[in-house]
Write a structure and sequence with these properties.
By secondary structure, the chain is an alpha+beta fold. It has 2 domains: about 120 residues, 60s Ribosomal Protein L30, Chain: A (2-Layer Sandwich); about 140 residues, Alpha-Beta Complex (Phosphoribosyl-aminoimidazole Synthetase, Chain A, domain 2), CATH 3.90.650. About 30% of the residues lie in helices and about 20% in strands. The protein has a 6-stranded mixed β-sheet, with helices on both faces. A hairpin with a 2-residue loop joins strand 1 and strand 2. The longest helix has 17 residues.
Amino acid sequence: MNEFDFINKYLSSKNNFSKFSLNYRDDVGYANNSIFSTDTICEGVHFYKDDNPFLVAKKLIRVNVSDIISKGIIPKFCLLNLSLGKDVDDIWLDKFMKGIHSDLNFYKLNLIGGDTTKNLHNTVLSLTIFSDLKDKKFIKRSSAKLNNFIYVTGTIGDSSLGLFCRNNPDFHLLKKYSEYLKNRYLLPKPRIELANFINKNATSSTDISDGLYSDLKNICMTSNLGAEINFSKIPLSTAASKIIKENPKLKTRIINGGDDYEILFTGPDGLEKKKNITKIGKMTKGNQINLIDFDDRINLDGYKHEI
């Protein structure tokens, strides 16, 4: 069972629906004029035992920051929960907490509590993050409009390609490109500088955590619309272009790969004039996503959280 199946089976019903949960169809919940989100990262899935704990800590904060800023809101407060695995020692924990404090300062987040425990297996790390709206709107997944244009920030697919490089160290690619991609996997860079722009201009928005196709599908499903995207318009880094040239099959990771933590949003024409924003498609009638100018037959999907 994946996360979506779990929500459909146990949570998405008239009995469980409330205006606070947004029917579990968004990145956030809403209560008391505040929005809330939480994300968990697990050793062996989202990070590995030999990864730098300083960077693991930063990744934990940044994947959570990404959820809130994709709503057009700057996060303010957080709760930290640590279930530390059998291999964690004081040296690992010291480095990890230095990373936590570094990004708390960088994002001006207030850590107000949490919980710690020990387990006999792998480390599991979780953050709950929230912000008061101060009467500002927040941008939902479900509010895309017919004929809205589809936009992304930054470059897409780097993180998934970085994980490929990490797991295939003998793959032929110049070191500067493989290191760039691996760093994009290890250390997301949420576009906090675009939060106010999203709030003022986007009609719907989400972060790209499960993959471009999967997260666009969420916007389509909740907005009761379809979409068409031009593969050739999707912005790629130089490193991504180089590795795809070496192995063209890897271009499926641009569509299906997760963990980019860029912003995927819809809005009126012309928003691509803003730096680091690219127009890639348009919202359409129906419920299908049409991928234009992509010549390979692939299983369009994205990362699914298995339970």
